[in-house]
């Protein structure tokens, strides 16, 4: 498995699928027995069914305007990380969500473990600095 290729595919699909709220496309990126954590202290979503429920819940009140992911930074043993930024409206109010996703890929190139760290802000704003997002 080529981690760089898997990671680039992961962020390209997430970027498009988040913009379109295409849950099925997102789920195809994950192993059946994946473990996803959204924020460090939340209980994990185990398997595609729990992940699907979480993603649908996340998209429910969101009207997405623009989604951008950085090029992934690839590490060893199937690990990669990418930064993301989403401009949206929730309940008619502009919001910005910015964060990063850590991914561990299995031998088949599917995500077996992911963890997100993110923050929201009222209004639309680009994250400070240009380390990842250009």
Task: Write structural notes for this entry.
The protein has 134 residues and is an alpha+beta fold. 27% of the residues lie in helices and 43% in strands. The chain has helices at 3-20, 23-27, 47-59, and strands at 30-38, 45-46, 62-69, 73-74, 79-90, 93-105, 111-122. Strands 1, 2, 3, 4, 5, 6 and 7 form a seven-stranded mixed β-sheet that branches. The longest helix has 18 residues, at 3-20. The mean pLDDT is 93.
Write a concise synopsis of the structure shown:
The protein is α+β, with helices and mostly antiparallel strands. The chain is 27% helix and 43% strand.
Number of alpha- plus pi-helical segments: 3
**Gap between N and C termini, in Å?**
28 Å
What is the overall shape? globular
Note poorly predicted spans.
Answer: none
Count every beta strand, where a strand is a DSSP E run of 2 or more residues: 7
Q: H/E series, N to C?
A: HHEEHEEEEE
Biggest sheet architecture: 7 strands, mixed
Q: What class, by secondary structure content?
A: alpha+beta
Mean pLDDT: 93
Strand % is 35-45%
What is the CA-atom radius of gyration, in angstroms? 14 Å
Helix content: 25-40%
């Amino acid at each position: 498995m080529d981690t760089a290729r898997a990671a680039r595919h992961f962020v390209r699909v997430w970027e498009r699928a988040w913009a379109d709220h295409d849950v099925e496309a997102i789920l195809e990126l994950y192993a059946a027995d994946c473990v996803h954590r959204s924020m460090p202290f939340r209980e994990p979503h185990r398997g595609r069914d729990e992940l699907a429920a979480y993603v649908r819940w996340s998209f429910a009140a969101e009207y997405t305007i623009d989604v951008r992911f950085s090029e992934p930074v690839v590490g060893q043993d199937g690990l990669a990380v990418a930064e993301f930024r989403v401009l949206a409206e929730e309940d008619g109010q502009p919001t910005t969500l910015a964060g990063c996703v850590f991914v561990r890929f299995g031998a088949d190139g599917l995500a077996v473990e992911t963890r997100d760290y993110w923050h929201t802000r009222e209004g639309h704003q680009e994250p400070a600095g240009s380390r990842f997002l250009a």
